[in-house]
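Support request, please re-run this one:
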Amino acid sequence: MPVAMQTIDSHQHFWIYDPQRDSWIDENMQVIRRNFLPADLQPVLQTNGINGCVAVQADQSEYETNYLLGLAAENTFIKGVVGWADLRSIELEKHLEQWRGNPLLKGFRHVLQGEKDRALMLQPAFIRGLRTLQRHSYTYDILVFPDQLKYVEQLTGALPDMPFVIDHLAKPYIRSGNIDGWEHFMSLIAQHSHVYCKVSGMVTEAAWNGWTYEQLVPYLDVVTEAFGTQRLMYGSDWPVCLVAAQYSEVVGVVRRYFESFSQVEKDAIFGGNAAQFYRL
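Re-run finished. Output below.
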């Protein structure tokens, strides 16, 4: 009997909503101003034919990392956690000790898109932190806007052995249809074979109440051509995606786009690549 393919949502979040901590959830995002927990997601995944997921930090605290690890320990469909630690801390090595031996912690992320210093990722202390993560066999999720891609190209070039994945296609300007600058740098970055890309977060970069599949296709064309099907991974960005689409619509876009691809390629995008990258 062949082993059933593991289907993975490589990017989603959990939280107990806190108006102060979660102030990024503004008035226009009322639909996600509530708690989102594993019991909310599991039936959605099952309905949409997804076996498991990777929980990604939404708050920049070690408490968040421990919270997600606790949820993953209690819910076997959460296959891994991307947490947060202060990468610029001279005590990073000591902080990582608390998670030594926890197989559920796969990597880390920092909300670089929100930093005033757009090139913060190139600070010597930040790069030192990434090298520390690399020594401990952790991955790193890159969360940026297109204006930071020139720095991402430098960063990924400077750390050729660090497993990187770009979240949400680096949030291209889908609303305006501006593609050129984003396309240029994504194509450059993709030349680094240790960099992957998450096919996630597209609907929230389009017009929330008026996006169409056709608007998303040019951006999918770019990353598919640049990264190839062995370095793309499906992610929903649930529950953030709910401000613009239901889960079934989000996964439906990606399934429709790759419908004509081989089964091997689809298996890679919908689980195999995430399993390999995060060692799930």
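The longest helix spans residues 263-278. The mean pLDDT is 96.
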